[in-house]
Design brief:
inorganic pyrophosphatase (n-terminal core); Diaminopimelate Epimerase, Chain A, domain 1; 368 residues; binds manganese (II) ion; alpha/beta; single chain; six-stranded mixed beta sheet
Length: 368
């Protein structure tokens, strides 16, 4: 835990980093599948930097597909863009800022390296990783990364004014980031509450309501149905493999895990599926949600699934949530129906087996 003196120092060092950078252009990097927390942090950096004459592009290497996230971007008019497959031209950016990630969930890192873009800052709240060597880093145990940016704002990064529509949009975005990342403040820590109190006078309640009350799409409902049908529950753990899905539906996986977690006997839900990517590759993507404080999603996923040959873990997480991605490599690609079925079956069983080994339960022993 970071004490008060340290957080003052962090905010100070963050602001020092921006001194003398007028005229620079920074790439603000979100994880490949940006969530409200990441989007609001990127937006905060844009406004803070722009006060200091620094231009920014808010970019990500994957996709925004959750309808609530699309609504957030549209309603709050936040300009973020998907980078696609192209390389990054050297000289385009004077530096990269990583928000709500440490480069491990970002496929743009190699291209930033190739373009010689220096990593200026990492601001995050996930367990510490060593992928990047930034000039400045602020990694805190806090519910939402947005709360760290609210902390910077309270310490002089930006003077919020209700008269400025842009500031109201920012406060609303950060508040949405905090609310969605902390399960409506349930897993919020003191700094998150401080941040929410600071932002509250500036938020646009109507817009916030509109963002929060997006309805689920038909596809998401279907994926939740499959997750329900295929679920196996043992000793409070619920596992569900949902088969094949398009990469544009990938965000339905955490939503299904959220849904399975609402069952009375369940404290931990894991949902995974075979995601077919636009470029033909395949991977198993999964999400974990838990209400069990002692579980530790990060180590739970690392212990259960292990790591790849290059030493990277298949998954990781934070206090109540985690995710994993297992690339299929040679086994990737469209096959005939039977082979596709066999492929999924093999992965489904292997993954379930690894989780059952981890929790020390015999899957075949029925609970009912
Ligand atoms: Mn976050």
């Amino acid at each position: 835990m970071v004490d008060m003196e340290d957080t003052n120092k962090q905010a100070e060092s963050f602001l020092e980093l921006l001194v003398g950078r007028e005229g620079e252009r920074h790439a603000v990097i979100m994880q490949d599948f940006p969530d409200p927390d990441a989007i609001s942090c990127a937006f905060a950096y844009r406004l803070i930097a722009s006060e200091r004459g620094i231009d920014t592009d808010l970019i990500y290497g994957g996709r925004v597909s959750h309808q609530e996230n699309i609504a957030m971007i549209n309603l709050l008019n936040i300009e973020i863009f998907e980078w696609g497959q192209e390389p990054i031209t050297s000289g385009k950016y004077d530096g990269a800022i990583f928000v709500d990630n440490q480069g491990t969930t970002v496929n743009l890192v190699d291209r930033l390296d190739a373009a010689g873009v220096p990593s200026l800052a990492v601001v995050d709240h996930h367990a510490k990783q060593d992928r990047l060597k930034p000039l400045f880093q602020d990694i805190r145990v806090v519910g939402a990364c947005a709360s760290i940016f609210a902390d910077y704002i309270s310490k002089g990064a930006l003077e919020l004014k209700s008269s400025k529509p842009e500031h109201r949009r920012l406060a609303t975005a950060l508040m949405h980031g905090i609310i969605s990342e902390t399960g409506s403040m349930i897993s919020a820590l003191p700094l998150d509450f401080t941040a929410a109190a600071l932002l509250q006078p500036f938020i646009d309640n109507e817009l916030l309501m509109e963002i929060l009350h997006q309805q689920r799409s038909h596809r998401v409902m279907e994926i939740i149905r499959m997750a329900l049908e295929n679920r196996v529950i043992r000793e409070g753990y619920c596992f569900s493999g949902i088969g094949y899905l398009r990469s544009s539906d990938r965000d339905a996986i955490p939503q299904a895990a959220d849904f399975l977690l609402t069952e009375a006997t369940v404290h931990t839900a894991v949902v995974y599926g075979m995601v077919t990517h636009a470029h033909g590759g395949e991977s198993i993507n999964g999400s974990l949600r838990t209400t069990e404080v002692a579980l530790g999603p990060d180590s739970f996923l690392k212990d259960s699934l292990g790591k790849m040959e290059n030493g990277t873990f298949y998954g990781g997480g934070k206090s109540t949530a985690g995710g994993f991605a297992i690339p299929l490599g040679f086994l990737s690609g469209q096959d005939d129906t039977e082979l596709s079925h066999i492929k999924w079956k093999a992965f489904d069983e292997k993954i379930r087996k690894k989780f059952f080994n981890k929790i020390g339960v015999d899957e075949d022993k029925d609970e009912e």
